[in-house]
Amino acid sequence: EAGVAQSPRYKIIEKRQSVAFWCNPISGHATLYWYQQILGQGPKLLIQFQNNGVVDDSQLPKDRFSAERLKGVDSTLKIQPAKLEDSAVYLCASSQGLGGPYEQYFGPGTRLTVT
Amino acid sequence: DAKTTQPPSMDCAEGRAANLPCNHSTISGNEYVYWYRQIHSQGPQYIIHGLKNNETNEMASLIITEDRKSSTLILPHATLRDTAVYYCIVRVAYAYNAGNMLTFGGGTRLMVKP
Predict the structure, then answer these.
(1) Which residue in the set A44, A91, A104 is minimally distant from B46, CB to CB?
(2) For residue B39, what are the CA distances in angstroms to A16, A65, A77, B42?
(3) Which end of chain A has fewer CB atoms within 10 angstroms, the N or the C?
(4) How far apart are the C-alpha atoms of B26 and A67, rounded to whole Å?
């Protein structure tokens, strides 16, 4: 079974530029999550999708971050414009769905450096 | 805020059992205990979860105290590849909303030494 795919693996941009990350979850997984992991900390949830609908985006900085999962499969997370404090690893995860003790499977992450 | 407390770091000799403690004294009746680990430069990896009974799988065993206020993850024969940060997380498993999310704390950095 293929795991969660993410691209790119690494990205370096200057502040005020924009960047986009892509995630392909495990086939058949209805729930998709984006996490931000700052160096030395545990991952923090940014947004959670169930199919193509948003379940929770309360911790997403909506003035600069956006995410979509238009067809309920792949997802894109965008930052525009980027700030220095956005330097982090962005992790995508997927699970079978809500309403059960389903474990989450994580991708390798995208390491973003903002200079 | 994370609902669990873990020691920031632990060492273990290769081949010995690694016992990682976690305190979750405010756990609710509908919350499960989950363990994930994160090896350097990789995404977190699911290990095991439980509600109140002890659980075992091919990776580890989970021992939950009778009052459910604490638990221990046991890696029976630690290898160098088990060096990672281990996260203990409590989570409502049967939630159809934001309660389904994982809230990570600082975790325990386990160093397995030769």
Answers:
(1) A104
(2) 32, 27, 24, 6
(3) N
(4) 33
